[in-house]
Amino acid sequence: MKTKTKICAVIGSPISHSLSPVIHNAAFEYLQLPFHYRALEFREPELAIKEMLEKNYRGYSVTLPLKTTVIKCLDNLDPLTKKIGAVNTIINEAGKLGGFNTDVSGAITSIQEKMDITRKRVVLLGAGGAARAIGFGLKEKKAKIHIMNRTRKRAQKIAEDLQATFSDFKADLLEGTDLIINTTPVGMYPHTNQSIIDEVPEGTIIMDIVYNPLETKLLKLAKRRGCRTINGSAMFLYQAAEQFRLFTGNEPPLEIMKKTLLEKLT
Asked: Residue 104 pLDDT > 90, yes or no?
């Protein structure tokens, strides 16, 4: 008897740029698993969840603007995700929906490939769901965190949760920082001529979680200043690999996923 194909999808808006379908389908195909992955445009979490339940989708990857708003539609959250207050993965277990966050492990793994972040001074640019996830990962490493955001109120809320400091965008506060991370979509395709900051301090490592393009305007600015950089592809890969485990219960073919991703980005 033919095994029924299980459907997974990435949800958010805009979504057409996402490479999640490409790397997940490559992994499913490589392991010959009865899964298929789609991209679905949603801005309203209720509509996304309604479709998941009606069509019995196995899982969602969750991106902007749904990482926090979709929580109210879920049945349960794993402990770390509950603490973070943002999800990037939803698993459907017989109609019961569980929320997870793989951004944390994805970000910390990608940073630790380049540096030891224990007790380092880190500035997070932005105060959305990704900033919360990365911030909690950094906090576990005892990093000293400062949040910069255009809306001080939002920055203050995250700063309180992380026991961090906060401000609006002030160039002088970037000086003496070990690591600066752009956690926003600024600079993402097709808006590749944008950068969240216009200058970067010398001697600082600059990370951008945007993975398309591979080298954002921010990272180009950093390289011109002689800074080491971390692009968003590693975080994207590692968080997707963890999602793959949750979707399928199988170990992800990481090299296949990485090869597929880099072929699309270069």
From this structure: yes
